[in-house]
Specification:
Shape: elongated
Structural class: alpha+beta
Largest sheet: 5 strands, antiparallel
Number of domains: 2
Distance between the termini: 29 Å
Oligomer: single chain
């Protein structure tokens, strides 16, 4: 979404309605500073006031998010554009999540295995071993579980046989044999098992 364009549109429609920023703010139960931020493109109206704002300005939510009055002629084009933008935003978000997964996974492994290595190489009593391992073990296991959850929901897995792309269940990801992000799982579409690679896009590029 183009916040600058939306902000200019809000300002234009407010003036057309004969309202000052303060008057519009009072009608919506927000501060005039909030309205000013919307019109300057520094922030977007909160979802809780978006419908009321549209009613006051005599526009639809689609108009607001488009930054212009959407006519019947370009309605489908606007919808397609927004859907493409949403897909792009999800793909970018998934890429960031998968990068975060690597960071969490590495840190979790360090928390688990470094104390274990210390205990293995330095003689100490059992209570001392427990005191060294436990502080890293609990956050390390929690971190690995969180990383596994990211692995499940970010992006898609592609079946080697039918090329179907899907989000598997957490159970399927957890118990699947794997090499990095490639996992041996059963495809819900064709029912065949294969080594399936992690991909970002829902649609097959081929």
């Amino acid at each position: 979404m183009d916040q600058i364009k939306i902000g200019k549109f809000v300002a234009e429609r407010r003036k057309t309605a004969g309202l000052t920023q303060l008057q519009l703010a009072e009608k919506l139960g927000v501060s005039d500073r909030a309205v000013s931020k919307w019109e300057n493109g520094r922030s977007m109206p909160d979802s809780s006031v978006m419908l009321d704002l549209c009613n006051e300005l005599g526009i639809t939510v689609n108009d607001l998010l488009s930054g212009e009055v959407v006519t019947v002629d370009n309605y489908n084009k606007e919808i397609e554009s927004k859907l493409l933008e949403m897909v792009k935003q999800k793909e970018e978000s998934d890429k960031r999540l998968l990068m975060l997964e690597w960071v969490i996974g590495i840190l979790s492994c360090v928390l688990i295995f470094v104390p274990a290595a210390i205990v293995a190489y330095f003689p100490m009593e059992e209570w001392q071993q427990f005191a060294v391992i436990l502080p890293g073990l609990i956050p390390g296991v929690v971190g690995l579980c969180f990383a596994m959850r990211i692995e499940q929901v970010a992006g898609y897995y592609e079946c080697k046989h039918c090329k179907h792309r899907y989000v598997p269940t957490l159970k399927a990801v957890w118990f699947a044999m794997h090499m990095g992000r490639t996992r041996y799982m059963k495809c819900p579409h064709c029912g065949k098992k294969s080594w399936q690679k992690k991909v970002i896009s829902k649609e097959n590029d081929n």
